[in-house]
Amino acid sequence: MQFLLALIVVGPLVGAAAALLPAPPGLKGKSPDQAVLRHGVTVTGVILVAAIVLALGFDHDHPSKMQATTDISWIPALDVRIHLGIDGISLPLLVLTALLTFLCALYSYFKMPAGPSPKAFVALILVLESGTLATFAVLDLLLFFLAFEMVLIPMYFLIARWGGAQRTQAAWKFILYTLLGSVVMLLGLLLIGLRAGTFDMVALATDNDRQLSTSVQVIAVLAIGIGLAVKTPMWPLHSWLPDAHTAAPTVGSVLLAGVLLKMGTYGFVRILLPIAPDGMETFAPYLAAFAVVGIIYGSLACLALARPGAKGDLKRLIAYSSVGHMGFVLLGISTMTPTGVNGALFANIAHGLITGLLFFLVGALKDRTGTSDLDTLAKESGAALYGKAPRLGGLLAFGAVASLGLPGLAGFWGEMLALFGAFKPADDLSRPAFLTFMAIAAFGTLLTAAYMLIVVRRVCMGPTSETQETPRLADVQGYEFAAWTPLVALTVLAGLWPAALLGLTDPAVQQLLAGGKS
Amino acid sequence: MIAAESTASLIQSVDWVAVAPPTIVAVVGLAVLVADLFLSERNKHVLGWVSLAGLVAAGLFLLPLTDSHRSTFCLSGPRATACSYTVDEFTLVIQLLVIGGALLTALLSMTALKDARNADKDLPEGEYWFLLLSSAAGAALLPASRDLATLVVALEVASLPAFALVGLKRGDKRSSEAALKFFLSSVTATAVTLLGVSFVYAATGTMHLTEVGEKLGNVDGQLDTLAQTGVVLTLVGFAFKVAAVPFHFWVPDTYVGAPLPVAAYLSVVGKAVGFTGLILVTVVAFPEYADVWGPALAALAALTMTIGNVAALRQQSTRAYSAVRLLAWSSVGQAGYLLVPIAAAGYADRHTDVLETTGATVAYALMYAAVNLGAFAVAALVGRTQKLNRVSDYRGLYAKSPLSALVLAFFLLCLAGLPPGIIGLFAKVTVFSTAVDAGLGWLAVVMAANVVIALYYYLQWTALLFRAPEGEPAKHHIPAPLTAAIAVTAVLGVALSGAPQLVLQFAEHGVR
Q1: Distance (Å, rounded) from C-alpha B161 to C-alpha B167?
Q2: Least CB-CB distance to A187: which of B363, B422, B432?
Q3: Which has fewest Cβ within 10 Å: A264, B283, B392, B410?
Q4: Which residues 432-491 on chain A approach chain B with CB closer than 8 angstroms?
Q5: Which among A144, A129, A164 is positioned nearest to A46, based on CA atoms?
Q6: What residues 159-178 of chain B have any CB closer than 8 A to a CB of chain A?
Q7: CB-CB: which of B432, B504, B506 is closest to A186?
Q8: Rounded to an integer, what distance in angstroms lies between the CA atom of residue A398 and that of residue A181?
């Protein structure tokens, strides 16, 4: 088990190094480009299989226990230990990351984004995967920071080299925002580590008699919270996200929305809630307030983009919708109740699946029509995707209704649980305030439904004039089905059987919130 | 050196093994100067190999000294314990840094001298090697010095040849101007230091650091102001060598005007000299006045990193020599980080804390020495074909020579402190933690802001390496010494990134 987890974290790195070397004889394939893309599919596939085996071997009766742990001293000078482990909170995220990266590699194998050589592309995707997986698997504050930073360089190059218009500025904005946040976060992590005398997350989370005074906790939560909030992203620190998404290549967007944003919310749950509960309590109402503002703001921005004549870009719209969805996640976390936090973790996974799917679909649409501009697509009457490419249209409509939180699909449970959590927040938090937040957030779901339906109306519906020869679009291809079906299936599965996921997270969350005592 | 009260002490027994490293460097330097007279023009390149061998031998002579604590040139007498020359872990680590830095500089110099010979822009070889080795000998002596006089002498031995090295390019106006600027400002700083030393001597009546430390505790009330002034003035000379603001203005012009290997040497060994002196003086001699120099150094650190980084940020990539200018300004910024732990030592309560915090400076300096010399080595490589050495000349380096581009990217990311430059990241973390530990929260925040500024320009340069090249990439031959220098620094950087403990151990238990 522990070997498997170590393989999952280190494997992609080795794969990335191998991708830069020339292909060995016998694996040369049709061309060097094809060989290296195939290498990417193989490595991510192996990692996915390893992650699935890990999930199967996971002791589902004790999801709150750290499993598959490795604990080796690495830098005694800083007390940094290579401490890996998974529990019910990190396992779903780990599997989601492995799955999305594999699907992205598969998709790129058939549809390599325009840009320089695929060699570097594959290497960067693999480094990105390693960094993300490490973020979810490490249990040491400084290693967490290292993993958190590790994804920046690959993502920067993915956007700056393989992106669309305005990619250089967008890539800079992405990296500078995140860096500013993460340097502040480092100070917070150091403050906790130095005051408590250890950087080990498990020790910090379970041993509540540490000498972390309330004031230290407040400062630490503020510093770490800013770093995580930039990544999440929380309104008003979100403005890098729409630009990055608009400019990024399809797989970049999928990974950015699907897994990179989760690193922020995961940090809130894994670090701030258990280690600095007092500080978190101070900031919870503010966090919730920012979260609901984000929900409303994201929805209104999407409504504005979806309006005819607004020249709204579909990728930008989905990026703004992410701000709204992550608002729900933050609201759930800020309630500091098991219900709310479980909802947040559920919404995390659901957002990864659904938004990943949506970015795939919009990317495919952009490849076919050459634009993701809503006005150009829809003209006056609508793009009539149902008529031109029925399967693509159907999937897009599916993604849209899943995103707006239709009961029976994954998007529903997370948001509902987050709202439930806000209905009855933790005892020390002001209930009236959270009731207000809940009401506003609930209104936000209505707005979400509104813009998603407008998008469906404008993109999928419309007259197909039978007199003129309408250019038919290529419908969903085989490889696209292969890349998207798992996401669709899991969205339905998580919607119909939420207990599969909640059964994993709930015991772990209960334990975290109880200060390590289950 | 100072007291010779009894006749027995007239004859001192010198521990030659202890003083071997700086002595060998100095002797080889003199030998090279003499040999230069007898060598024909064609055989001058032998001098380079001799110097290289001398530095390697000096490095090897550090080996028998490990795990030992030796002192020589001690005061005699029943109660005298003070010595002028001490070999301990601190001395050894810094001597390793200095000799290693000089060695890499020598490797860079061999190519530079050969190119100058071929281009008929003669650099006098014998003088060059003599000056380099003399300066290195002074720099190696400095960490072992334990009295103010020896410290100042070592500081001067390290600096004076450096002026000449900067101005060595014959007929180059910029070179002479840079040398003059460097010389005038350095001499002023040294004069101020000497004044400070004399004040301290007047107040305490001793030159030995440990005794100064003891006696400053009970200085006569009337002499208190004198002692305080002395403490502050003494620091000035060392702050100059570190290139701390406001003693930094000579840096960019000097680096651009000097031969590139000399700039690399100044940026690493020159700084090592400065902060070693600062650590010795502040921690050993002036702990009593920690409330004076602690805040002063903290302010200096904040100013230095901010001004250095902002100036580096404002460098235009198309300006002539902008790559060297950028490295120059960024080295000013890095000097600011080096000062942070020393400033934090001023706030530490116990002696062990002081050792641990200054250990962070040593650890950071070791990291910085390896990667900064590496960056200069790649800059020297690019400078062979692109005479103007602009940052924009690095565009598309990856297409021309993938390995050197990858290595330079790695060095820059180490300097920036971003993965995959793991050692850079953790070295910064140790520096941060000293500041947080000492309660210098504001300094940590200033440093955080600076780290982001620095990331911006390092990353911009890194991104440029991988852009599509403008012209047709031309392959060219890379000389062996240059390859060796790049390879050594790259291996060091990668090894340290895998096992940061190698240098960070000094931050853990201190350098004693």
Answers
A1: 10
A2: B432
A3: B392
A4: none
A5: A129
A6: none
A7: B432
A8: 35
Domain ranges of chain A: 2-513
Adjacent-strand bridge partners of B74: B83
Judge: B455–A179 Cβ closer than 8 Å, yes or no.
Answer: yes
Q: Do A190 and B500 touch (CB under 8 A)?
A: no
Q: Which residues contact A357 (CB under 8 A, 6 or more apart)?
A: A395, A399, A402, A484, A487, A488, A491
- How many C-beta atoms lie closer than 10 Å to residue B159's C-beta? 25
Q: Does B501 touch chain A (CB under 8 A)?
A: yes
Q: Do A187 and B436 touch (CB under 8 A)?
A: yes
Residue B10 pLDDT greater than 60, yes or no: no
What b/e readout covers B304-319, taking b as 16+ CB neighbours within 10 angstroms? bbbbbbebbbebebee
Q: Per-residue pLDDT tens for A256-281? A: 988 899 999 999 999 998 888 888 88
Question: Residue B1 falls within a domain, yes or no?
Answer: no
Q: How many A-B residue pairs are in contact by the CB < 8 A criterion? A: 83
**Beta bridge partner(s), residue A67:** A86
In the predicted model, is pLDDT for residue B349 greater than 80?
A: no
CB A373, CB A316: distance < 8 Å: no
Look up the ipTM and state it. 0.86
Q: What is the DSSP string of A447-466?
A: HHHHHHHHHHHHHH-S---S
Nearest to B155 by CA among B196, B203, B215, B123: B196
If you write DSSP's letter for every residue of B325-346 in order, what string do you get? Answer: HHHHHHHHHHHHHHHHHHHHHT
Total tally of structural domains belonging to chain B: 1
pLDDT the model gives residue B1: 46
Long-range Cβ pairs for the range B415-418 (8 Å, 24+)? B415/B330, B415/B334, B415/B368, B415/B371, B415/B372, B415/B375, B415/B454, B415/B458, B416/B451, B416/B454, B416/B455, B416/B458, B416/B459, B417/B451, B417/B455, B418/A149, B418/A152, B418/A153, B418/A179, B418/B455, B418/B459
Residue B4 pLDDT: 45
CB contact under 8 A, B456 and A176: yes
Range of the domain at B408: 289-512
Three-class secondary structure of residue A89 per DSSP = coil
Q: Do A76 and B436 touch (CB under 8 A)?
A: no
Q: What is the rounded average pLDDT for all residues in chain A?
A: 87
Considering only residues 293 to 322 of chain B, which have any Cβ-Cβ distance to chain A shorter than 8 Å?
none
The whole-angstrom separation of Cα A91 and Cα A501 is 10
Is residue A468 scored above 60 in pLDDT?
A: no
Q: What is the 3-state secondary structure (H, E, C) of A250-315?
A: HHHHHHHHHHHHHHHHHHHHHHHHHHCHHHHHHHHHHHHHHHHHHHHHHHHHHHHHHCCCCCCEHH
Contacts of B451 in chain A (CB under 8 A): 183
Spatial CA neighbour of A98 closest among A124, A65, A134, A71: A134
Query: How many of the other CB atoms lie within 10 Å of CB of B212?
Result: 29
* B425 and chain A in contact, CB less than 8 A: yes
Contact B500 A183 (CB under 8 A): no
Residues of A in contact with B432 (CB under 8 A): 186-187, 190
Angle between the N-to-C axes of helices B271-279 and B224-242, in degrees from 0 to 180, rounded to the nearest 10: 160
A223: distance to nearest CA of chain B, Å? Answer: 10
Chain B residue with minimal CA distance to A169? B460
Tokens of residue A359, six digits = 């970015």
- Asked whether the predicted pLDDT for residue A106 surpasses 70, the reply is yes
B469 shares contact with chain A (CB less than 8 Å): no
The Cα of A173 is separated from the nearest Cα of chain B by a number of Å equal to 11
Instruction: Answer whether B451 sits within 8 Å of A183, measured CB to CB.
Output: yes
Backbone angles phi, psi at A71, to 5 degrees: -145, 95
pLDDT in tens, B222-235: 888 888 888 888 88
Which pair of structure tokens corresponds to residue A151?
């994804």
- Nearest chain B residue to A173 by CA: give it: B456
Yes or no, beta carbons of B455 and A80 under 8 Å apart:
no
